[in-house]
Design a protein that fits this description.
Helix content of chain B: over 70%
Number of strands of chain B: 0
Structural class of chain A: alpha+beta
Helix content of chain A: 25-40%
Shape of chain B: globular
Largest sheet of chain A: 3 strands, antiparallel
Radius of gyration of chain B: 21 Å
Number of domains of chain B: 1
Largest interface: A-B, 15 and 15 residues
Oligomer: heterodimer
Number of strands of chain A: 7
Distance between the termini of chain A: 68 Å
Chain lengths: 172, 359
């Protein structure tokens, strides 16, 4: 490094770079500390948005979710964590349709890769920020994500041709 | 200024009142030794806590927070842990030397600790060649480190000890040079006279202006290396040598090294305070009599400890900023940079003093 400079130049540039280092650490000394004191600040601890806590299926206030039971997430999962049970029924207009019966998610074998949420065409599942996943029994890790008596959200804006066609393609 | 010798002479009078002279002096010596050892332990605890907090803050963390308020009891619990641990004697070690080494290290740092001027009249070892004595005694620590490395019968310990020896002995040179520069300015080697002079005429770092500031910076660099700390901690570089010369030590024997490391830091800072920043002398600004009067009301010990902790903070700042140097870089820094600069600085100081250009 300093072989190609002469002695004085090397000395001065060395001192300069040392001072830059000292300045950086001194600035760091006065910045806000990022340590979270976890059990104490449990009430107001907010994890960052992209944190992958555990898989959830958001439901709206009418107990409706967006899952159509296509099973793409189940196929995308490398660990076999997700088990989607669906059934066919005849709707009022006489068409045969598929609907979700049970969406089982095994937190114990999930590796939080987010492939399922990427695979979902409707954005029906997502990861939330809860990380307190410890339980005493392994069976408690198998979660049913769709709520009791919930049903799929009826599409009100399906008059637009394009997404309609797309969703038909997938449900078929 | 409050003169501590009032208390010590009162105690001496009290003791000689009911016991012969020799017994009084013996009692005083024991009392002083107890005080030194207590202070030694207290300051080690303060410094370890400070190191952990300062280090954490430089790394954008909080440091110890759980044991006691703001983690203040953390170090006490660490000390108790250390005291209860077993001292293991390993097969193949030279038992006598192995057990002797930590005591040499602690002894060296305790004797140098006793040199520090705490207040007016509160000095334990004070005679006309004080700085000389300080430099000589501080080198006993190297013997302890080398013995530890040799007697451990472990290649990592030996490499660490050899590195430490090479490093301490070479940096001793620039410490000696910077001290010589300051002696050139003060004209005395006695710590009490140096402090008295700085009380009367202002701190040496202001009196000696440019060469004193250069000497101060050189002293901080060399002092950090003397303590085996900071960017110069390759004798105990944990990534290559596990822990260097104290790899094979456990329990309180390891604790002594730990203690001595932190106390050497304190002593190094205390010596910088004494020689450059006025020791117990309060901050005086020429012409502001009222301000000087107020400053005089703050006891000398507070000034001394405050300034020392400030210098300790500077050293910790260095330590947690720079990455560790290689052995060749350490030696080239010393022999190609620090020694020539300190020699030139000594000549500059001599010119300034002989022409009366200082304040």
């Amino acid at each position: 490094m300093y072989e190609d400079k002469n002695y004085i130049e090397g000395l001065l540039s060395g001192i300069k770079s040392l001072c830059i280092g000292l300045k950086t650490t001194m600035r760091e000394f006065f910045t806000k500390k990022i340590t979270e004191q976890y059990p104490e600040n449990r009430g107001k601890l907010v994890m960052f948005d992209r944190f992958r806590g555990s898989l959830t299926m958001p439901h709206n206030e009418n107990n409706e979710h967006k899952c159509v039971g296509c099973g793409l997430c189940e196929m995308a999962c490398p660990n076999g964590t997700i088990k989607v049970t669906s059934e066919f029924y005849t709707a009022e207009d006489g068409k045969k349709k598929k609907r979700l019966v049970k969406y089982e998610y095994n937190l114990g074998s999930c590796m939080f890769c987010q492939l399922c949420t990427r695979a979902c065409p409707h954005g029906a599942i997502e990861f939330n920020q809860s990380f307190e996943n410890a339980v005493f029994d392994r069976s408690k890790l198998i979660l049913v994500l769709n709520h009791e008596g919930s049903k799929v959200m009826e599409k009100k804006v399906v008059k637009k041709a394009e997404p309609e066609a797309k969703s038909k393609e997938q449900t078929a | 200024m409050f003169d501590f010798s009032i208390i010590s002479s009162w105690l001496h009078g009290l003791l000689t009142g009911f016991m012969p002279e020799w017994a009084a002096i013996l009692t005083e010596s024991i009392l002083v030794a107890l005080v030194i050892i207590t202070l030694y332990a207290i300051f080690a605890i303060v410094l370890i806590y400070m190191e952990r907090k300062v280090c954490a803050f430089f790394q954008c963390r909080l440091g110890p927070m759980r044991v006691g308020p703001f983690g203040t009891l953390q170090v006490f619990s660490d000390v108790f842990k250390m005291l209860t641990k077993e001292i293991i004697n390993l097969r193949g070690t030279d038992l006598f030397l192995h057990n002797l080494a930590p005591f040499l290290v602690v002894m060296a740092s305790m004797i140098t600790f006793a040199c520090l001027p705490w207040n007016v009249g509160a000095q334990i070892i004070d005679f006309n060649v004080g700085i000389f004595f300080f430099l000589a005694v501080s080198s006993i620590g190297v013997v302890g480190i080398l013995l530890a490395g040799w007697s451990s019968n472990n290649k990592y310990s030996l490499i660490g000890a050899m590195r430490s020896g090479a490093q301490i002995i070479s940096y001793e040179l620039s410490i000696g040079m910077t001290m010589l520069t300051m002696i050139c300015l003060t004209g005395t080697m006695s710590f009490s006279e140096i402090c008295q002079q700085q009380y009367a005429e202002g701190w040496n770092i202001f009196r000696g202006h440019l060469p004193a500031v250069i000497a101060f910076i050189l002293y901080l660099i060399a002092g950090n290396a003397e303590c085996n700390r900071g960017p110069f901690d390759l004798p105990e570089s944990e990534s290559e040598l596990t822990a260097g010369y104290h790899t094979e030590y456990s329990g309180m024997h390891f604790g002594y090294y730990y203690l001595a490391e932190y106390m050497n830091l304190f002593i190094c800072a205390g010596m910088a305070t004494t020689v450059f920043l006025g020791g117990w002398a309060p901050l005086h600004i020429a012409g502001l009599e009222g301000f000087n009067g107020i400053m005089d009301y703050i006891p000398g010990a507070v000034w001394f400890i405050g300034k020392t902790l400030f210098v300790v903070f500077l050293l910790m700042w260095l330590r947690w900023t720079f990455p560790r140097l290689r052995i060749d870089q350490i030696l080239s820094l010393e022999w190609k940079y620090l020694v020539p600069i300190s020699m030139a600085n000594l000549i500059l100081m001599a010119i300034i003093v002989s022409n009366g250009l200082h304040f």
